[in-house]
């Protein structure tokens, strides 16, 4: 795989993509493939996607009086020296304390959190605790205990290395997970992936509780117990999706995102955001900006003003990799949620090109798609320049909404495949973004039907700031 050229492989093709296209076009006269990128020939066995029943092993309540459950962590500050630990108790509030110590020391420290509760329809939540532990050492394994005084449970995590230009780091990517049998396969594949993700960038749509009558919030609890096996040990970075909105004006719930905001705290104040729905973090050599597709983003809105001030703050000599997460994709060639991201694209795409964003991850469409580096910023309503063009300053757009939730797969694609679409496939899976240094990151997508080590779509990313070269399929 030449450095200058494009490097993409699939488990079905061992020869170069360009040859593949030429051969196929000659042999099949395949308009679809000649026109755009690749539509995978892999066809997933059609089976119904159903939620795991309430008595499933993954939903088991931990034993013991008032035992903490639904334990999860996320980054707790802007640079990775703090962690937010969250958990739920059901019998009584119990202790808000987190006891923690580094593996190099026996000196135990304590941090105090707070708890909240909420009601939604006829559901009353347990006691939801959030506690931020601060001033941690970088690159260090910590143990922590919650449930002090009743049933104690112990977990651990490793803090990220100090923010810096050539610091390697491996992010997992999961979206639209839900709690079906397929969701469990996706999570297992992520856990078994030999590349060992160190933190998950989650692109929204967590539990899908709102698909149940009265948004049955018991499914928020079961989801959090299901994913505890990963998120209690490594941070998941949260993006809000449409299934987090939980808008229920008929019962007086006119403020959206109520269950999500009570359950999932994020360090938004550290990035001078005024809302937990949009914020940024630095982690290792990455600067990650999280946006809200379902909050106002027009000119003069808080999200717009925040992003306008935020992008110039990114120092690529400190964090070379600029990654954006959002729920609704801007470039999507499936017949599901088609054009839903268009209005936000119109507002923000010129900034993404100007500031050379490396990659944008989104979910929402329950399938997989990777774009070329394209932009559509020339367009305005009178000039008719409405076709996206190849642009090496533009991000690659990746839709990774294929976590496996109960709504099933999106398999109806627009035809022919548009030129901006480099690879698309209707399968469940997850991806890895493996930063090697300031110039190189290795990206791979893994479908659930394959063995754990198989990479279904791969591409080397060349950093947009440090290495202005072509890394897409043309
Ligand atoms: C809430 O209402 C639903 C539907 O009427 C019912 O099945 C459920 O048991 C109720 N839950 C509680 C906690 O009362
Ligand atoms: C979920 O996956 C785990 C790990 O592969 C397995 O042990 C468990 O039995 C699965 N549960 C269900 C309900 O599929
Ligand atoms: C950007 O980061 C580098 C490395 O940390 C630092 O030397 C430089 O002063 C920073 N630039 C600005 C404008 O803050
Ligand atoms: C796919 O989507 C298009 C556009 O919405 C629709 O016209 C077509 O009937 C759909 N095809 C199938 C098989 O559902
Ligand atoms: C960056 O990583 C790539 C891929 O591992 C490697 O080929 C390259 O030599 C590295 N660059 C430096 C300066 O180490
Ligand atoms: Fe969605």
From TrEMBL:
Catalytic activities: a phosphate monoester + H2O = an alcohol + phosphate
Boundaries of every Calcineurin-like phosphoesterase domain copy: 170-368
Domain of life: Eukaryota
GO molecular function: acid phosphatase activity; metal ion binding
Gene3D superfamilies referenced in this protein's UniProt entry, alphabetically: 3.60.21.10, Purple acid phosphatase-like, N-terminal (2.60.40.380)
EC number assigned by the record: 3.1.3.2
Purple acid phosphatase N-terminal domain: residues covered: 68-159
Domain Purple acid phosphatase C-terminal: 394-451
Membrane-crossing residue ranges in chain numbering: 20-37
Entry cofactors: Zn(2+); Fe cation
InterPro entries, per the entry: Calcineurin-like_PHP, Metallo-depent_PP-like, MPP_PAP, PAPs-like, PAPs_C, PAPs_N, Purple_acid_Pase-like_N
Keywords: Glycoprotein, Hydrolase, Iron, Membrane, Metal-binding, Signal, Transmembrane, Transmembrane helix, Zinc
Family named by the database record: Belongs to the metallophosphoesterase superfamily. Purple acid phosphatase family.
The protein's name: Purple acid phosphatase
Organism this protein belongs to: Dipteronia dyeriana
